[in-house]
Amino acid sequence: MVVRETAILVENHMGKPGDDSCVGRKALASLKSKLETSPSPSLARSPSSSSPKLKCPKVPKRLRAEVKEVKVAEDCYAPKLISLGPYYHGESRLAKGEELKLKLAEAYIQYCHRLVDDFYDKISCIITELKDCYDEMSTKKYDDDEFTVMMVVDGCALLSYILCVCLGSKQGNFSIRYQDISLLHRDALLLENQLPYQLLLQLMEMVGPESTNHFWTVMFQEFFGINDEAIFQESMGMKSKESSFLQKMKSYYCFLPNNQINDLKLKPKTTTTTDHNNESSSSNPCNHLLDLFRRNFLGDERSNSSTAHVTQNEILEGTKHDRVSVRDVKEVMASFRNVKELMAAGIRIKRSPTRHLRDISFRSNGITACLKIPPITIDSSTKAMFLNLIAYEMSSDVPHDFISYLRFLDSLIDHADDVRELQSIGVLQNNLGTHEEVALFFNTVSANLESSFHAYRDVRVKIRKHLQSHYNSKAKMWMTQCLDTYFGSPWTIIAWVGAFFALFLTIVQTYYSVFPH
């Protein structure tokens, strides 16, 4: 009797076939089946379970779609003179570049005192790894022999060009036209025109094992235009009267004598040039030349350690030492006021001591504050450079640090007046056109992009705190307005000093008039 009652209860609880409760349990069984077949969260996060992104990817389709005009897309992403890698190899419009590459590659092979067979044998050992760096649809039409030859020619030509630019001489003319200089430099830094850095390392070793560290670091930094000319000359043992970087480019790029190059390679490392971007590091290897340029452009991560190494406890707790609270976390990604309004709130903008994009800092003394921003030049080539750096960060696993920098500048620049202020300070050099064009450029180039939360977080939080403190205190607003009105320029300061000095003389004269003895 008891068993029968129990069965009835179970039947009533589960429901009869066709009941809604039965259907619900079928849905539950389906959910359990899906959960059993799906990977666990820890497994999904493991590197082995997800396919790694390509080291030399193509520009994401989303970015190409945003560049509506075909001509504009070609100007930004496609090479104009030489092709490097398989994506644009063999195009008829780049036939002239193929001839130039052969000349440059031949010069590099002769300089290394090796046979072309030595280069071929060295690269053929890693040809499978090099193919895996590119999109499969672009490499499957080449067999290993053809792809090896392509990598040898392109890699030797690129290194030859870099050496010629940095160590130019009047011996041996490649007949490169001056108007092609900027095209060569531009094509070498396009995302779809990159060579794996693993290839470049192998080719660098053909010069000599000792040349892969400090020597090539200095060469790349000089090629990127990051080294100061005096520092480069000191590091390379050159005399100060030698030609500048631009003058060396005008001399059509030739090698120095081999014995002089060997002396430069073996010169001890100086303290003026650092190897913080040593791409042979196994922990964070470099992918290609554009990646190396990005690292040098952004600067050392240690200079931004205050934003990169804030722990979760610091975010949640918040302290009096400018640590980030939960409220700040919600506000930090929001846009703040532009340059003109920041200056009206007592925030002065100055140039950072370096040109590294990570070198942005903010310091407040209660009433006034100082925001330091690295200087940057905007010209006709900037758009292509920016778009390719954006494309690289969106198509790889690297942090969106450059995108975050653009978003930060976009939050500062709303109108032409903001550009005018930054140019007068020396933060922005406008070689593009009108101030309106520069403002439009920054407002559109990163409009639909998401920045990294950690990038410049402490700066944003400190700016917000300063603004809140400023606008919540009428005394601070009055004092700031007084400083701007009466001490905002050197001329007003001189006028005040003159007025006080005249008043002092008047008081002295009055005193001696009343008390002549």
Task: Offer a concise description of the structure.
With 517 residues, the chain is mainly α. It is 56% helix and 4% strand.
Task: Characterize the structure shown.
The protein is mostly helical. It has 28 helices and 5 strands. The chain has helices spanning about 1-15, 20-35, 40-45, 60-65, 70-75, 95-110, 115-125, 125-130, 135-140, 145-165, 180-185, 195-205, 215-225, 230-235, 245-250, 260-265, 290-300, 305-310, 310-315, 325-330, 340-345, 380-395, 400-410, 415-425, 435-445, 455-470, 475-485, 490-515, and strands at about 345-350, 360-365, 370-375, 375-380, 430. Strands 1-3-2 form a 3-stranded mixed beta sheet.
Key features of this structure:
517 residues; mainly alpha; 5 strands; 4% strand; extended
Layout of helices and strands, plus pairs?
Elements: H1 2-14, H2 20-37, H3 41-45, H4 61-66, H5 70-77, H6 95-111, H7 116-124, H8 127-131, H9 136-139, H10 144-166, H11 181-187, H12 197-204, H13 214-224, H14 229-236, H15 245-250, H16 258-265, H17 289-298, H18 305-308, H19 312-317, H20 326-332, H21 339-344, E1 347-351, E2 361-364, E3 369-373, E4 376-378, H22 382-394, H23 401-412, H24 416-425, E5 428-430, H25 435-445, H26 457-471, H27 474-486, H28 490-514
Parallel strand pairs: 1-3, 4-5
Antiparallel strand pairs: 2-3
